[in-house]
Amino acid sequence: MTVAYAPYRDARRVAFAPTSTRLAAVDLYRTEDSVVLSVDLPGVDAGSIDVGVDGRVLTVRAQRTAPSLEGATWISRERQSGAVVRKLRLGESIDTESIAADYADGVLTVTLPVAEKAKARKVAVSGAAPAPVASAETEAQADVEAPAAA
């Protein structure tokens, strides 16, 4: 019996197999006062969403349940169901005590406020008084008042 050599057969089986936990797609951007995380969670019930912080790790979990239709025979089923998880390591500049989350239109928006100590600010410079700025008018006065050389 001859067996055909298929080196990628097992790889295809693993690559296209459904998994129980998937990564959620995210966008991340920074404003002056906060970092905003947007997580795509279409078709997820708001009650199944869990946002938690453990130390410096933010975890977003959600559960998408598959519809159960009695007497129906599925022809195609491409929308995945199951758990969706995303973990992000937070930097020291994030105020973990003031994190807020909102879910609307299938998108979870998590606002991560930047700590006051990490915000951009002006630093005052101490020392000698600033040197006067010379202008064309003050230079003309100096020429008039200067004694003529003999």
Fold and architecture overview:
By secondary structure, the chain is mostly beta strands. 11% of the residues lie in helices and 32% in strands. It has helices at 9-15, 136-145, and strands at 21-23, 26-30, 34-40, 50-54, 57-64, 82-89, 100-104, 107-113. The protein has a 4-stranded mixed β-sheet, with no helix packed on it. The longest helix is centred in the last third of the chain and has 10 residues, at 136-145. It starts with 8 loop residues before the first helix and ends in a 5-residue tail after the last helix. Residues 13-17 have low confidence and may be disordered.
Order of helices and strands: HEEEEEEEEH
Taking pLDDT < 50 over at least 5 consecutive residues as the criterion, the unreliable ranges are: 13-17
Radius of gyration: 31 Å
The CATH architecture classification is Sandwich
Shape: elongated
Strand content: 25-35%
Helix and strand composition category: mainly beta
| First and last CA, distance | 120 Å
| Structure annotation, total helices | 2
Look up the CATH topology: Immunoglobulin-like
Order of strands in the sheet with the most strands? 1-6-5-4
Largest sheet: 4 strands, mixed
Tell me the domain tally. Answer: 1
Give the mean pLDDT: 80
